[in-house]
Amino acid sequence: HKIQPHGHSSLVPTPLTYQILSWVMIGQFVLGLPLNLSVLYIFIFRYKFWKNKSIFLFNIVVADFLLVVCLPVKAYHYLQGERHSPNEAVCKIMLFMLFLNRGASIAFLITLSLDRYFNVVHLGRRNCVKVLKKTPQISVVIWLLLLPLTIPTMVHTFNCCNSHGRVNETYLSNVMDTVREVVFFTQIIIPFIILVFCTVRIVNRLRRKTVGDKTKLQRAVCVVLSVIFVFSICFLPCAIARAVLLFVRIIEIQSAEDIMVQVYDSLMVLSYIDCLLDPLVYCFCNTGFKNAYISSFCPPFLKEKLLSADFGKEAATTATSTTTNSGGRIVSIPTTVK
């Protein structure tokens, strides 16, 4: 039998590191709870997301809120010197929630980016994503499709990324570990490739546009760049760290594994900051939401300045037009429809 390494036990290798991480998560919770509650309030009571075709954005808010709710439990175990709960049921529920919320956040962010891509690069063609946005049941279907991808965290006993090289590892546990790792990396790598593709195509479209207003294209670029920023900060670093951790675990270098366990857990804690960064995406995606949020929560002097600047841009956008001669008549065609 193998000796149980530190990375495979519930106890942390370095208590001080995890105490610091626990306070970081407490800070994320203190900032994230009021922020996400205020965003939920705006979407439901002020902006009425179901009337403004913002159902996908609302689902991202729900995923972020569920993530924020999980943070105190995770922070508590870190303060106790444990990488996860010693209670198997609590451990599985926490991992299930974290995997589900992460998958939902990524899925809806990618959907928003694809919507911007079709609106800009394939303007005039039928946008299937826009059609899906008008159907609330699609959001339910996406959540249900994410459940099978999260089931591997519930099928077999496992402890916080204990994949390949566990004590008394069986063929079934080895298969389940492989499935879970494939799901984890697929959920990050494939969406990132899609994001890069959408960004390159939208930027190229912006460069080729020589006449007319570019506001819509620039806003689309801001949306996909903000999503890439969230991915680069929250998801890619922990995916790279997880790959390195699995490698050193398989080749059984105990000292390197203890270090990589701490690096991986630290980057996972960093990834929880997406519940604070996602509101940036809301602002770039939806001017109506941004104006409703500013009107509700910003102080009067700042509110007037921000709203006047935004309305000034809107007026300039709607005022831009193209004049053409059609059958002897002069027709003014707005270049941007808000």
TrEMBL record:
Signal peptide: none
Record's GO cellular component terms: membrane
GO molecular function, one term: G protein-coupled receptor activity
First-listed, main subcellular location of the protein, grouped into a coarse class: membrane
Top-level taxonomic group: Eukaryota
Cellular localization per UniProt: Membrane
Membrane topology, as annotated: Multi-pass membrane protein
Keywords: G-protein coupled receptor, Membrane, Receptor, Transducer, Transmembrane, Transmembrane helix
Pfam families in UniProt: 7tm_1
InterPro entries per record: GPCR_Rhodpsn, GPCR_Rhodpsn_7TM, HCARs
Protein name stated in the entry: G-protein coupled receptors family 1 profile domain-containing protein
Lineage: Eukaryota, Metazoa, Chordata, Craniata, Vertebrata
